[in-house]
Write a structure and sequence with these properties.
Chains A, B, C, D: This is 6-phosphofructokinase. 4 copies of one chain form a homotetramer. Chain A is an alpha/beta fold. The first copy, chain A, contains 11 helices and 11 strands. In chain A, the strands form 2 sheets. Chain A has a 7-stranded mixed beta sheet, with helices on both faces. Chain A has a 4-stranded parallel beta sheet with strand order 7-8-6-9, sandwiched between helices. In chain A, strand 7, helix 8 and strand 8 form a beta-alpha-beta unit. In chain A, helix 2 crosses helix 4, helix 4 crosses helix 5 and helix 8 packs across helix 9. Chain A is elongated and about 70 Å long. In chain A, 62% of the residues are buried. At the A-C interface, helix 1, helix 6, helix 7, helix 10 and helix 11 of A face helix 1, helix 6, helix 7, helix 10 and helix 11 of C.
């Protein structure tokens, strides 16, 4: 093994740069050359590469997003797209590729490995934290702290008014972000993809909280699901039941930027080292994740399995709501 | 003068607590008693008062929102409401009242002063910064830095994608927040109440920027105007013209919370001291603001005049957009 | 079991309030009364208690430090002190006590349990993260992010100058904080209690880095050890070897304040729930920690055992230094 | 005028990059070429220049420090040094130079203008805010907010203990940073270069505060003056008088990094535009500052005059200390 590539694909996540950096440093320490592939699979198909040395990754560890850029590539989902990608990899002389992304990235990578025999190792990065085979994904902790900061700020102003606040966080198919930031922020209610949403039930619980504990404001954390901005609609529905004025915050991509936290940088660094080590050890078609504090490898094809919310956290949420 | 009251009214703003604290300290140093009136004019009408001493305001200077809570009171706009308010003031034995709020607060206060001869002095607090008679209102600097932090975070992720981002900030009738955070963040475009909005024009300028400078992403700062959440609609319209994917962030009440900045705490402190001093000096029916670095008094009835954006800042915005 | 107490002792740590809050909520949900003991063992000896209900802990989850205050109590180390503490516990009618603190707290608590048969359960809170029996202590993540923020800021200015920077973080007998913030910040060197410090060696490695990679500035993270402020002396020694100008930052108690991170609040909440559950289950003389993602109980007497730095992190540090 | 240079000199300050960026943009809009001079006067003497176009300054507005780097140059203080600098300017074909820095920078620049007839315009950037001829210097607001954040964090932990805390901020010859962050943070005492320091007096006032108001902790803000780290000595002296345990934080260069605030970026942008405009208008040997909200020009030779602290702020400090 003489030369490897690295790309970031899917939604960007804070900590990706720490991971890229660790991949480059580990490769160099093992006398491998490293090539950065720009804009994910779309760039791979087009052969958009850039050599990565120490200098290229200097002063990047603290920056959100990804210096390699990213994209979603419908073309890569077709056999023709993957044929072109394989050709690019051969042309660039890559003996393996580190794929930093989510389970969509890994489904594609799995096919590339199977169809073309190209050694690939994945690293899970997703602010939604919805990748099976790792307890935490790169970017989740930073995004959760961003959401928490929003909840804290809203709490300041919530106390000044009698109002209902909706804080919409990311989470397409999973409520990890909503759950952890909600517990940490003492939110009153969660609306997450894992549970069906009933405006009447949420309203009833809120009314009960107001009645029993004399509260005059409440914060509802909403996972955006399939429809960013849905909180405006939800707020409207609940207002009809509850008769309370409400206000909405939509965090959106705010959660993808900002300096990564310690946890995301350390996790990104550890997994970047692990991915290159895995390639050197001859592993292929797997993802390097962290399970119960240790590096664990999962076949790329399995990373899309449903990852459940921590039942203990689900259980304590209502106990701890403000 | 033996005893004064203080209230916060209208939208809450970070730095209000620093102002309340300065009012209390200055009053105590002048051997006045101080009474806090809760929930703005609504609480005043209902006689909801609380004595304020050193202890009551300890450890509040760094907290966003207002410890006295606030509200909007339709009742106070009626002569009957003000009659009840005047009765509360007499009952509480107040020789004067400091009103912390925006121009809506001051219109009401002006009537109270005229109709009932009650000494009132206003202090401008508004994250929109739309009060005439002061260069800056308490809360504006904190809110602007909150918006700037959002733009910085979006910039991180914007560079990772080819996309258009809309950051919706507060600003019902004025674009101060959008303008200052937009300049500081190097935003590409502003959509503000002071200017008519043409999706075609904005799209044309963005397209030109992409063409001339090879940019692949851009940030548009939108003042929420009369309709929070309007950015989703605007994003849709511009996408139709430009064919670019877009994402929306709605900051909403995020901008009212969080620890106030140095500027807002120092301004709040200075104006709180000035308001009590003004009452002691026999001033009435005026607002203590800061104009060109000095304390200036403006009749409450004039604080609703149109306050224009700084033409120099408007001029340099296009020069400095990223 | 009808009534329990909770105290915080030793150095305060961000997230302690989230833990207190979870103790109170869990107790109330199990129909226990809760009594807060102020100022740690010193307050326990003096019987300084305060009833804790829902209202008492409202709006505290986001605040650094501890609402119960803390202290170090030499008296409690004596049999007489513990006799008085046991009397206070009996007088307050407590059937068990949750001790939130570090291993010093737990040594004392262990004696109290043994000598007087009082049910006690500990929860590890220490920004140094030096408690055996838990992977992470409450407060560590917040403190590490505080240190990281400092390193990031220094990096900004370091690039503007040719200089050596020393960032002194906490860590009396252990280098956890220095190690994790150092990896996350891409620091060049670590000076930690686990390793002997040689100015000549550190200087040689720094000089080599400057020579090989053309760097002109570097950041050294120093654990304060037994002597806060020692970095001024260290900087002086290294300057003698290296001839480089240097600057020093001493973070000190900065790391104990500030809003706790998601991780510290969630950990504090989980462990607070676990501690009360443990008391209800009849456990005694143990600490509820988190090991490999799960709740684990360790006898209080063993929590002072040496806890080693993660060898994987130690190994990758030099690989990843900026 | 066809081509101008820009340099940063002296201590770096957050917002310098916003100023560089505004200089470049304004120059380009006026069809001037712009050359960046690296490492201040030291780089000027050595002819270290780099062309600056739109691309060079993209994505720099939010970064602390200065992308052009800075230095202190003893050589430039000699006539020989300035002769070499003048030769570099001629060689680079510069028709004028924008100097971003403090009064030391401007003394040198003034000589360059007088001795060699080179058009120079200064822009004040100094976190100490000690430049005469401008109300605020670039970097001050960011540094003050950094100091305030430290005080807020300390306040969290201070409440948990009975202790005295010393927060050492920058301020070589002036106490602007200490004063504004001290007011905003509700600090109990200030130790600043403008006033002689008596441990006995400070101790007496602190003791009185403890006695009268039942306080158990206090925060003293110390300007570092000529000797960074002096707070350890001061803490020792006061401990001798007061018998209170104390802790020290030394912020140092932390205050030079971090993302600049809105105020520093807007000020940097305005003054950068003003400086280029001044050169185009034929001004020379002056500094473009902001006085009472408007651009004002001051001869470079006068910028070293003593700039006094705002007497109103000095007056309210004791009124408002926590």
């Amino acid at each position: 093994m003489k030369r490897i590539g690295v790309l970031t694909s899917g939604g960007d996540a804070p900590g990706m740069n720490a991971c890229i950096r660790a991949v480059v440093r580990t490769a160099l320490a093992n006398e491998l050359e490293v090539v950065g592939i720009r804009r994910g699979y779309a760039g791979l198909i087009r052969g958009e590469t850039v050599p990565l040395d120490r200098r290229a990754i200097r002063n990047t560890i603290h920056i959100g997003g990804t210096i390699l850029e990213t994209s979603r590539s419908p073309e890569f989902r077709t056999p023709e797209g993957r044929t072109r990608a394989a050709a690019s990899i051969e042309e660039a002389g890559l003996d393996g590729v580190v794929l930093i992304g989510g389970d969509g990235t890994f489904q594609g990578g799995s096919l590339l490995a199977e169809e073309w025999g190209i050694p690939v190792v994945g690293v899970p990065a997703s602010i939604d934290n919805d990748v099976y085979g790792t307890d935490y994904c790169i970017g989740f902790d930073t995004a959760a702290n961003c959401a928490l900061n929003a909840i804290d700020r809203i709490r300041d102003t919530a106390r000044s008014h009698d109002r209902l606040f909706f804080v919409e966080v990311m989470g397409r198919e999973s409520g990890f972000l909503a759950l952890e930031s909600g517990i940490a922020g003492g939110a009153e209610e969660l609306i997450i993809p894992e549970e069906s949403f009933s405006p009447a039930d949420v309203s009833a619980r809120l009314r009960e909280g107001f009645r029993r504990f004399g509260k005059k404001s409440a914060i509802v954390v909403v996972a955006e699901g399939e429809m960013p901005g849905r909180s405006f609609e939800i707020a409207h529905e609940i207002r009809e039941h509850l008769g309370y004025e409400s206000r909405v915050v939509v965090l959106g991509h705010l959660q993808r930027g900002g300096p990564p936290t310690v946890r995301d940088r350390v996790l990104g660094s550890m997994l970047g080292v692990a991915a290159v080590t895995a390639l050197l050890d001859g592993r292929n078609g797997c993802m390097a994740g962290e399970v119960k504090g240790e590096i664990a490898y999962t076949p790329l094809g399995e990373t899309g399995r449903v990852k459940s919310l921590d039942p203990d956290l689900m259980r304590i949420f209502p106990l701890l709501s403000e």
